[in-house]
Amino acid sequence: QKITINSNCFENCKYLESFKCETSDLTICQQIFNGCDKLENISITQGQSNGIENEMQNNELVLSKNLFSNLNSLKTFNIETNQSIIIKSNPFNQCQSLSKVRFKSMHSVVFKAKSFYQVNIKSFEVTGNKVEFGENCFSYSNGLQSMKITCDELSIAINCFNSCSELSSISFENLKCAKIDMYSFYYCNKLIVLELSTSTSLEINRSSFYNLKGLREISLKTRNLIIGNKTYNKSNEKDANKISLNGLHKHCNLHIHLI
Asked: Region 129-152: what's the mean pLDDT?
């Protein structure tokens, strides 16, 4: 069944509290929820041929800038699809009550630069074959407390979680390979333990974990650990024990396990 929701379809529906759509073919245009001051929940479950907004290309679902902006009562957002998902800069701008967000895709999920910049969600979950976080993706999201990432391939860009001052829990599941850029967790001072385990490779910058004042333990487990131009594995495991990272707190213990 094909469903198209045109622009301004629910404009000024003052008593709309929840939106739930389950269909195999959905198109949502810009600004459909303008003035929906009581809208608290959005849940969209989609099949193979869906589109969202007017930007469906190569079986991609795109959330554009300000798509859901100014929904001040919105608390939860859930989307599950067989398409690849692209989240552009701040589609949830000024959604001041948004607390729980979940993305699930059978393919890639790409968060562009500043996708959730200054959006104070509390809980965030993403599942995909490949997950990419752009620069400053969650910068200054001061309400963010927990993050769960499940994917085969992971990329985290520079300053991704910069100044997420309440982030205390981040979990990574089913990783095959991951790349963590510099200053990714800058000023995430409530993180105490950080565990990263991949089955094939893990690439980090020497400043990936710079200035995490509360961090007491980092555990890195992988087959090939890449830092700069050097790769560490079982063949040079002794050298890995000499690795030092920039900006680690003096009480932070670094554990490296090469499999």
From this structure: 97
